[in-house]
Amino acid sequence: MNQWNYKPFWEETYKQLKKKLNESEITLWIDALSYYDSKENIIVFSVGTPFIRDQIAQKYQRLIEDTFLEISDMNISLEFVVISKNIQTTQEKKLPPVKPSSPETQKKIKKNHPNLNKNYTFDNFIVGDNNDYAANAAQVITKNLGKNYNPFLIYGGVGLGKTHLMQAIGHEIWNNTNLTVIYVTAESFTNEFISSLKQKKVMGFKNKYRSADVLLIDDIHFFQGKEGVQEELFHTFNTLYESERQIVFTCDRNPSDLKSLSSRLKSRFERGLNIDLKTPKYETRCAILIKKLENSPILIPQDVINLVAQNISSNVRDLEAAMTKLIAFAEIKNKPMTIEIAKDLLRDTFGSTRQHNISVQSIQKIVANYFDISLSDIRGKKRTKSITFPRHIAMYLSREMTENSTTELGIEFGGKDHSTILNGYQKISERILAEPSLEVTITELKKIIMDNYDK
Ligand code: ADP
Ligand code: MG
Asked: CB of 125 closer than 6 A to ligand 1?
């Protein structure tokens, strides 16, 4: 028998950790540790994946060791073994019985999933402070489907990795189980639903989505204002949820900020675990670029990588696009990339406002503040001039500085028609031409909005 047994200390340490950490940290990270063994001055935990091991080691090892010291007066250090648990729970029962297979067929690799981008895997996802929570939860979910975090909702601005992470969950499950994984954008889901109505094939539609073991729906903000499909989604959700099948959503904002969405559906979105992705820090941006360059045919020098990472700060999609531009140039011209060429090629990109993840809400707030009116007036219906003018400016800036369509902006402006947004935009565009002072105001507002984002 093992002469060391620190398990009782661990139980006490766990209680202490519960006081020191918030609940989601406990469920996401600490609960991912299982006591495994004790050796002299060492306690060994088993964890499900190397990723979880690394994250816990980085974030909590010190804290756990210190807590051990507090309660036991012993310097006990942590060690980890990675033992991947099989998918348990209800899904397991649904798996077809394993057929005895010859050694050759055993290794057969499953075909790629038809709707998942093959590059959007966990291996290709760089983890930094901005996304470690979400990335860890995503991994934990693939091991505990439909159980703890259902639905899982990932939200955040454009180009921050929502689709990538969602599809990584899809790949992981697809590659390791026989479960049915359906990935669909909210837009396709809607279109498919509408055409099934037209073709009188609604049953087929319902059956398809309600028979998914894992349903991934990307960009659910698209459902705003679309009542028919919301109703359908609500029922799909309930069917899957009740039979503990995993649902994952992505959204461009906190689900509580969604508008024109039935409250019962909203409460479903918010029910499980909601985690946001933030903009990556400089080091993470460099790491992402280096990862992307692994397969590049062209050598990009480190100072160019740093330059790009320094100047494109808000979103990974733009970061990648800038690098792709440099690679393409170097390849076509057959010349090495230098920092001078890079600066020259990316001058416009570096200056662009769209690379910041600016929200319509923040524009509305800043404009309301600037003209000293209330936010509800900016979004409301009052037609006095002192209100319509700032409202039009907010519409103009929202169209200029964000990626939203006029339909989406209509929703943000209290449920207006897209033509109202267009009208406001045109009014300001015309006035700018006639009144130089208005241009100054607009430039000033843009600066305030941008400064607000650089902090
Ligand atoms: P979103 O859905 O949030 O708009 P995407 O998932 O489409 O963003 O990501 C945009 C691009 O950035 C994709 O090519 C994706 O692979 C890449 N990307 C985003 N985050 C990361 C990351 N942490 N590591 C590596 N690539 C990333
Ligand atoms: Mg996306």
From this structure: yes
